[in-house]
């Protein structure tokens, strides 16, 4: 398998999950400004959507969208327990968190990334994100991870929440979330992914 990634982007989530899985994979960096891969290929020729992550399977098929990729990888390594088994309520809870993170947190950062957005628009976006983080804080109040033990949802939450610092936004209002981020950064899979992406 080959993961197309951009350092620190949402592709870091499946990168962490791949590291957790122990499965063999390779990486190819994508410049999202030029849409060129490190190998000089037009990324639109690989993924017409033009964004990362994209996972090229061993048979040549391409899988896109982070929540789909992390579940696919988790199911290839069931012994690692990165995702609860299909057909269980636990799996639905995982999907529930992946959907929430994708639509409410990941997309919530869009305004903060927008160079043309005004300071007041960015502050309003952070206020809305803060309400989402209040819910995450409540979930983490009595357990270390979103589902009680590490899952693919935690990788996604870590990656998106890591963006707060890039926008000079403090997590001081959420001590449980801060503790979660510290725990995640200490995981060998996260360390390995960050190092491979040049983020350490």
TrEMBL record:
Keywords: Transferase. Its EC number is 2.5.1.18. InterPro entries: Glutathione-S-Trfase_C-like, Glutathione-S-Trfase_C_sf, Glutathione_S-Trfase, Glutathione_S-Trfase_N, GST_C, Thioredoxin-like_sf. GO terms for molecular function: glutathione transferase activity. Coiled coil: none annotated. The keyword Transferase applies. Residues 87-200 form the GST C-terminal domain. CDD domains: GST_C_Beta, GST_N_Beta. Residues 1-81 form the GST N-terminal domain. The keyword Transferase applies. This is Glutathione transferase GstA. The gene is gstA.
């Amino acid at each position: 398998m080959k993961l197309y990634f951009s350092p620190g982007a949402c592709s870091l989530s499946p990168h962490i999950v791949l590291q957790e899985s122990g499965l063999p994979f390779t990486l190819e960096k994508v410049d999202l400004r030029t849409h060129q891969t490190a190998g000089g290929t037009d990324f639109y020729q690989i993924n017409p959507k033009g964004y990362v992550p994209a996972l090229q399977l061993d048979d040549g098929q391409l899988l896109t969208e982070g929540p789909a990729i992390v579940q696919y990888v988790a199911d290839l390594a069931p012994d690692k327990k990165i995702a609860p088994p299909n057909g269980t309520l636990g799996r639905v809870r995982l999907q529930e968190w992946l959907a929430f993170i994708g639509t409410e947190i990941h997309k919530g950062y869009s305004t903060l990334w927008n160079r043309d957005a005004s300071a007041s628009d960015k502050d309003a976006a952070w206020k809305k994100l803060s309400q989402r983080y209040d819910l995450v804080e409540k979930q983490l109040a009595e357990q270390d991870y979103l589902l009680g033990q590490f899952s693919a949802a935690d990788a996604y939450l870590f990656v998106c929440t890591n963006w707060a610092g890039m926008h000079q936004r403090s997590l001081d209002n959420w001590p449980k979330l801060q503790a979660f981020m510290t725990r995640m950064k200490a995981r060998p899979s996260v360390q390995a992914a960050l190092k491979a992406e040049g983020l350490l």
